[in-house]
């Protein structure tokens, strides 16, 4: 999906409903310019956006997952897991080896079950408690020299 497209604007509405309202944050009314170069992933059912997340490149080997949102009417159906697994696959294909994300306390067990490790102590932002998680998604092959007799 392209930044600032009609589908992208649907994701803003979903993010407002699922993430921003509960965090007491101002609602998104315009497409954030800082997301222009992010990789935008969506899940659609019956032509409607029901899930979204962003992959935000940080370094040549590291990408951040941001703005994970699944419509409340679709939660518990495994869509969040499918979206995360797909995002990891996209990141691998693009050459990233590490993913990190910041998760709300309500999602900590979800991220742990997907193999993410806690990177630091939790912190509070407004009324919500967050924690930073990390996952290695590719290992660099170890090359060993062979000794020969000649």
Automatic annotation (TrEMBL):
The keyword Nuclease does not apply. It holds the Pfam family Acetyltransf_1. The keyword Nucleotide-binding does not apply. Keywords: Transferase. Coiled coil: none annotated. Gene3D superfamilies: 3.40.630.30. Residues 1-135 form the N-acetyltransferase domain. One of its GO terms (molecular function) is N-acetyltransferase activity. GO terms for cellular component: cytoplasm. PANTHER family: N-ACETYLTRANSFERASE 6 (PTHR13538), N-ALPHA-ACETYLTRANSFERASE 80 (PTHR13538:SF4). This is GNAT family N-acetyltransferase.
